[in-house]
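INTERNAL TRANSFER SHEET
From: sequence group
To: structure group
Subject: Large ribosomal subunit protein uL1

Please process the attached sequence and return the structure record in the designated field. Keep the field labels unchanged so the import script can parse them.
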Amino acid sequence: MAKLGKRTRAAREAFAGKENLTIEDAVALIKSNANAKFDETVEIAVNLGVDPRHADQMVRGVVGLPSGTGKDVRVAVFARGAKADEATAAGADIVGAEDLMETIQGGTIDFDRCIATPDMMPIVGRLGKVLGPRNLMPNPRVGTVTMDVAEAVKNAKGGEVQFKAEKAGVVHAGVGKVSFDQDKLVDNIRAFIGAVARAKPTGAKGTYMKKIALSSTMGPGVTVDVAEATAE
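Return from structure group:
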């Protein structure tokens, strides 16, 4: 078994016995113990009482984080003509149609968000097996299949985060950087939790939010008091 480094051991000792904290206390603990040489991402994982294999229990949505993600989001847009020009002007990193499809089919996926105009979906649909597992497939429910490509690109670049429940019913996302002020991280976390709460599916039974955990990229996780985090 690999030995823990001094920083890792110290962080775990600092987190020992700390659970069901307020969001404020959890963020303070994470920030004070983030010692990596890079600006770590603050990550959230929400364990939900759903089974995403059933259509009426799928949790999916999008939320604009008040203080952004701190990440440079690379955006690809499937569009032609004037809409392709709009996407480029709005700051899209990659714009194309069949050529973009062929690039992706060739194994190159150099983007974090994929947007498409409705007329492009027959082409994009051929990429379902490639983009779907990476949660990159454009979807009208989260605003990535739209004629307003400029607004979609702007939102993606400005801190919009998509979320989708995985097979085990867990939703996770990056909600900022440890370098963010504590208040900004807290606001982002509360916005994300609120969006997941509003996305509760009709088929969910029993306890919806079972556990919420926060961590930094290289740090241990700490659980948050669900009742406090979801209180209006």
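Handover comment: The chain is about 35% helix and 20% strand. The chain has two domains: 18-68+161-230, 75-157.
Transfer complete.
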